Each structure stands twice: as structure tokens, then as C-alpha cells.
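Title: Prediction job returns without error message
Component: structure pipeline
Severity: low
Priority: P3
Assignee: unassigned

Description:
Job completed but the reporter wants confirmation the result is attached to the right record. Sequence as submitted:
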Amino acid sequence: MALALVTFYPALAQDVEEQVTQPVQPQEQQVVVPQELQDQQQERRYQMYGVMFYNLENLFDTINNNGVYDKEFSPEGARQWNGTKYWQKQHNMAYTIGQMEVNGSPAVGPVIIGVSEIENITVLQDLVRQPEIKDRRYQIVHHDSPDRRGVDVGLLYNPRFFKVLNVTNQRINKYLPDYPEFRSRDQLCVTGMLAGEKVSVIVNHWPSRLGGEEQSSYLREAAGRMARETMDSLLLDDPNQGIIFMGDLNDDPQNKSCSEAVGAKKEIKDCLAEPGSCFNPWWNILNRGIGTLGYKGNWNLFDQIIFTDYFLKNFESKEKPTLTFLRAEVLNRKFLRSNEGDRQGYPLRTFSGGVFLNGYSDHFPTMIYLVKEVK
């Protein structure tokens, strides 16, 4: 994989001066360590690490620098996207991230956050210096993609707990030889050290379902093959590493792109039986009727975090000497939900029908929790 032209950007320290409205404080239970680990607290100590993904729903600046595709998010565009709306959106995104505390974590919040639907590096720089999260000093990995709308993926990470070693990016066109002009988001792969262990994180935003789910499936299946080949290449280079693959996949866990192209397993036992395979915890979560976005009474779970069997080798053991998967959660906090009309219970988005709702995103964020015993 070729080295990407990617820059690391430290969080900026200054405050944002724009006035914003504080949303309602959520009244939600905090994530807790399960009872089977609590029972061992007297003899064992653990630390938790949260890995999160969040589609930020069109986090655009107010400058039209992409012609017709960017005019919509400018003061002259249909959404009248001005500074007031932009900074309120930034505040809402930072507030959401700030509320996702991880009990038992030395980092308080998630140590790694994959993001999608961001326009450029500037919007991420503005995000990490928001008052709600600036003390975490998140740093940024970002790469400009050729997507026609100008949206990219990125990675935020807490440098106290995740040390970046290498960054690469992959383009989907290699996997679509009959469509050389197709333009989408590049895949971002960041390798680093988390809790003393080598971990590679792959961030994606797969092609949409524009034109129909079945008609466009081949695009996401190609993206799935790209992801699987990337994971295989990483494991060939160093089989003693964990791989976390995340993104807005525009497909559900049971769709071909995830279940066949990526080969993500529904059950842990099936993953453990095939070394180098990966586990998809969201399959059973969606089967329980829990999703990250919904439409007309139906839930989808596009925002997935899939990972290799590396994080399962101590899953059934009382000892957790290495980073071990504990649980996965759709972060459908009360303050992120709509309370009105036919969108009740769904994500409270930024716009609906062209009307500014001062919401958050049309996707709920997701998180996996990794635990490691402290010696």
C-alpha cells in the first residue's frame, strides 16, 4: 500500500467565541463494566478504551470552493449555511463527543474516533478546539478524497493513548476497472500503538444507495473487497496486530458487502474458528431492532465497527492480558433523538425538509469497548 500524503494536525488551543445554545443535558445511564469483571476487581484491575465512529452529517464550512456541489452549504445556497449555523453545528458535534464518556478509561472519552461526511481539514481543526473537547487535545489524520461532493473521512485520536506509526490510503477505482471515472471517498488506514499493542484502524465511507440498493450493491461490494485486501495485507506484514475497520458502509451487516466481501462473521465462535477473520457485533444488535438510522419504521445499521479475531482471543477468559473486546453499543442517547412527528425516536438531524433543526446528525454514533488488565 502506498504511503498517503497525509498530515497530522495537533488540536488548537484557542476557544471559539461564537455564542451557541446549550442543548438539554442527557439523562442516560453510563457505561459500566459488566458484573463478571466487577466481581474480580479486588484481585484484578482493568482499563477500558473506547473506539467510536460518527457520521457528522455534512460538516461543511461556509465557503463555496467546489462549484455547484458546495453552493448548497454557503450563505447564498438553499440552506443559507452561514457562520451562526456552522458554529452551532460544531458545538453540537463536540457536545456529542464530549458526552460519550467511557467508565474505567484513563482517557475519559473515546481514544479513537473515526468520522465521515467532513468537508476538509479545517472543519476538523475547528471541531477539536471546541470547548467541550479541547482538553482532550485530539489530533487529526485527514486525507483529501476525490469525492464529487467534496466529503472525506478522518480520524481523531488522543495522543496520550494512541501513537501513530504509519498512514496509507486506498482508492476504490482499482476494484472497479469498468468504471475508471467513478469518484468516492478514499479509504484511510492508520497504524499505531494503543495500550502498548499494535493496532491498525481503517476508516471508510462506502458509496451510497443512490439508484437503488440492489442496483448500487456492486459499488459497496467493491469497497468491501478493498477493505478485506487491506486487512489481509496488514496481517501479512504483521500478523501480531489487531485491526479495527469502521465506517458508514451504507449497508447492513447481513448485506453481501459486509458478510461476503469483507467476510465479517455474525458469531464470535465462527470468527475464532477462522484465524484472521473478523467479527461484526452489529449483526445481532440490528436483529434486536436497534439501528443507527431509520426510515418509515425500519432501522438500518450502516455505522459499523468490525474487528479481527485478535481482540477475541481472551474474550472467554477471566484474564485480559491484551486488548479484548467487551461490548458494542449504538450511542442513541436521548438528546440525540427527535421527539416530534414521524421522526420520533430517530436521530435529530441538522436539517429536515430544508428547515434548520439545530440537531446533531442523521446517524447515531457507535462505539466498541476494549478492556485490558492492568498489572
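Comment from assignee: result matches the submitted record. The longest strand covers residues 45-59.
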